[in-house]
Specification:
The chain has helices at residues 5-9, 32-40, 78-84, 127-141, 154-159, 218-225; strands spanning 28-29, 44-51, 54-65, 68-74, 88-101, 109-123, 160-175, 193-196. The protein has a single domain (5-180, 190-201, 209-225), classed as Electron Transport, Fmn-binding Protein, Chain A (Pnp Oxidase, Chain A), CATH 2.30.110. The chain is 22% helix and 34% strand. With 230 residues, the protein is α+β, with helices and mostly antiparallel strands. It contains six helices and eight strands.
Amino acid sequence: MSQTPDPAAEGRAPRGARHRVERTRARARYDRDAIYAILDAGLIAHVGFCTDGQPFVIPMLYARDGETILLHGSVASRLVDALGAGIPACLSVTHVDGLVLARSHFHHSVNYRSVVAFGRATLIADPDAKIAALARFVDAIVPGRAAEARAPDRSELAATSVLRLEIEDASAKIRSGGVKDDAADLALPHWAGIVPQHPVFGAPIPDESVPQGTVLPPSVQQLIAGAARA
C-alpha cells in the first residue's frame, strides 16, 4: 500500500488522492488495520477495470495475502487475462451490519463497513507460487481447510489463472451507531431503531458420497461455531 505519511496516520488522505473519501469524511479510515479487518471479513469483491474502452465490474472470490489481494479465474477468461496484464483496477468490498430505521424517509440508512482499493494485478506464473496462493485462498475462506483437502494437480493448475493485486491505495468507510433523526421529528409516533444483520452459516450438508458417520473436520466445526469468522 502506498505510504502517505502524516495525513493517513491522522485519518486523512492527501487532497486529490484517488482513495480520498469526499462524502461524510468523518466515516473514513485510512489505517491498514481497519482496511485489512474489513477485507479479511469478506468473501466477495467487486473488481472494476476498463479494457478496450469498455468498463467491467466482476464479482470475484478473493483473499488478502499481506499487502496484496489474491484473485483467481479460468485461463479461458479473457477478462481475467486482461486484468492480469497489469491494467489499473479498483476493488470494493462491503458488509451490511444493520438497517437504520428512522422516523423520516430521509434519515433511513444502513450501518456498514466498506473498502475501496486501487492497484494492478499480475498473473502468478510459478507453479509452486500458484499452489501456495491457492492454499492461502482456501484458508482465507475457511481457516484450516487447506490442510484437510488435496492441493491442485498439474491439470487443475494449468486450467486456473491466479492473480496477485498489489494494493497501491485504499480507504475504508464505516457507518455505525443509531438513528440521526431531526429534533423536530422525535415526537412523531413512529418506531425508530436498528435492525442488526449478521452472516450466519447453516448446518453442513455432507456430499452424498461421504460415508455415514464421517466426523466434520475441525475447520467446518469452527466455521459453524462462529470461531473462524466474525
